[in-house]
Every structure is written in structure tokens, then in C-alpha cells.
Amino acid sequence: MEKIFKYFVVALLAISVALVAWAIATTPSDPTTANATAIGANLYWGYALLIAAILVAVLGACMDMLKKPEGLKGAIFSVVAIVAIVVVSYVLAQGHSFEIVDLQNKGFFPRFDTVITDASIMVTYVAMAGAIVAAIYSAVSDALK
After folding, report:
1. CB within 8 A of 12, min separation 6: which ones?
2. Which residues contact 72 (CB under 8 A, 6 or more apart)?
3. How far apart are CA 113 and CA 98, in angstroms?
4. What is the pLDDT of residue 121?
5. d(CA 88, CA 82)
């Protein structure tokens, strides 16, 4: 099974490299004329890889919980924490009264788009802070062992 997985990953990498090479090779020297076909294909490929990665991560976590049910409590706690962070970020973003300028339409983005953008930025900050704290904790705990 591991050999099949390795070949599958190599095939995905080869497809990715080929698509990027195609986009680079067909990009004109004049930046005002873009190659929408190659760029669109790369975007769709990126979306497909992202969706596949999310599915594999979720299915892998579910299979691991089925094998080791004692980790279920931690998984539920993690999901509740993530939902809480998203909800708190959304509520905080609702309280902000700023507008994002829409240069293309010479106006402002709708309120909902502004709130979602602000909430997404807050969630990203919390995730980055959590990653930094986890890295520091891991380094310190390894050093103390």
C-alpha cells in the first residue's frame, strides 16, 4: 500500500510541475495579455489538491478515532475550540465599523464581505499565535527531557 501511495504522490507532483511549466512557458512577455487557460488550469488543479488534502485529513482523523476511541475527547475539544474561535472572531468583526474600498467599482464592499474578511484575518492571527506557542512549548519540553 505504501508503494502505491508513493507512486500516487510522485504522479501528483509530476502533474503539478507540468502545469506550472506550461503556465510559465505560455506566459507572454507583455503582462497585459495573460494566458487565462494555463493560469485557470493551475488554479483548478490547486483547488482540487486542496479539496483532496482536506478530505484525506478528515478521513484519516476519523479512521484514527475509530481505531483509538480514547482520542475522541481530545478531538471533540479541538472542534469545539475551533468553532469557538470562529464564532468569537465573527462577533468581534461584527462590532467593527469600517469599510473596505472596492477600487474596481469605485465604492465599498458590502458589509457581509467586510465582516467575513475581518473574521478570517482574526482567525488567521489566532492560528499563527497557536502555532508559535505550540512550537515554543515543544522545543522547551524536548529540551527539559
Report:
1. 49
2. 65
3. 12
4. 93
5. 10
Residues 6+ apart with CB under 8 A from 45: 15, 16, 19
DSSP 69-113: GGGHHHHHHHHHHHHHHHHHHHHHHHH-----EETTTTEE--HHH
What span, in angstroms and rounded, lies between the C-alpha atoms of 81 and 89?
12
Is pLDDT of 52 > 80? Answer: yes
Whether the per-residue pLDDT at 16 is higher than 90: the answer is yes
Please, which pLDDT band fits residue 113 given cuts at 50, 70 and 90?
A: confident
Q: How far is CA 145 from CA 113, 131, 134, 137, in A?
A: 48, 21, 16, 12
> In whole angstroms, what is the distance from residue 92 CA to residue 94 CA?
5
- Calpha distance 68→133 (Å, rounded): 27
Mean pLDDT (the chain) is 87
